[in-house]
Amino acid sequence: MFKQVYLSTGRGCWVMSRVFDQGYPWDICYDTRFQTLSRNKLPTSTALWLSEKKINEWFNHAHYGLQLRDSNHQEPFVNDELPSRIICGYVVVKPMLTEFTETSAIFDDGSIEENIDVVVFATGYNYSFPFLDNSIIKVDDNVNLYKSVFPKNLEKATLGVIGLIQPIGAIMTVLEMQARWITRVFKGKTV
């Protein structure tokens, strides 16, 4: 059992509940034709402002120390329990971590937390395809795939990548559709 959990974030993060307007799942409310049309037609700054306003209806991220510190769009963290864990004191939000000592952590604001036993780094990941030649799939900041599936550098579609996307909503249905499309392309039934 942990005595105290510290959550250190340098940029902040959007935390969303699975339950959205009128008790519906958030992806069903957010991913409608009307919502998508309005997000695509409005200026980016206005669309981001509206999204931020809606996300902050559940709880104000600034009150919890989770307000985003830059204006870049960031994928939300879907978790129903984090705000209540912060309120109860089970999780303490800290600013960016700057240094570790043998048993303590030093944060950007100068605060030091002693007797740290376990550290979990959840800093993201890098894409890599070490089993493929760089001429097939070049990995830099993003992976250049046609419709997020087929490498553009191949003359014929003989390789498909499944799941290298971040959809709004459930990923399993998107993976299934990608797999169906890839099999149809491989069979020559579609392009």
UniProtKB/TrEMBL annotation:
Gene Ontology CC, one term: endoplasmic reticulum membrane
Catalytic activity reported: N,N-dimethylaniline + NADPH + O2 + H(+) = N,N-dimethylaniline N-oxide + NADP(+) + H2O; hypotaurine + NADPH + O2 + H(+) = taurine + NADP(+) + H2O; trimethylamine + NADPH + O2 = trimethylamine N-oxide + NADP(+) + H2O; hypotaurine + NADH + O2 + H(+) = taurine + NAD(+) + H2O
Cofactor needs: FAD
UniProt-annotated location(s): Endoplasmic reticulum membrane
Presence of keyword Cytoplasm: no
Keyword terms: FAD, Flavoprotein, Membrane, Monooxygenase, NADP, Oxidoreductase, Transmembrane, Transmembrane helix
The EC number(s) this enzyme carries: 1.-.-.-
Classification via SUPFAM superfamilies: FAD/NAD(P)-binding domain
InterPro entries named in the record: FAD/NAD-bd_sf, Flavin_mOase, Flavin_mOase-like, Flavin_mOase_1, FMO-like
Top-level taxon of the source organism: Eukaryota
Chief subcellular location: endoplasmic reticulum
Molecular functions (GO terms): flavin adenine dinucleotide binding; hypotaurine monooxygenase activity; N,N-dimethylaniline monooxygenase activity; NADP binding; trimethylamine monooxygenase activity
Function: Broad spectrum monooxygenase that catalyzes the oxygenation of a wide variety of nitrogen- and sulfur-containing compounds including xenobiotics. Catalyzes the S-oxygenation of hypotaurine to produce taurine, an organic osmolyte involved in cell volume regulation as well as a variety of cytoprotective and developmental processes.
Family in the record: Belongs to the FMO family.
Protein known as: Flavin-containing monooxygenase
Lineage: Eukaryota, Metazoa, Chordata, Craniata, Vertebrata
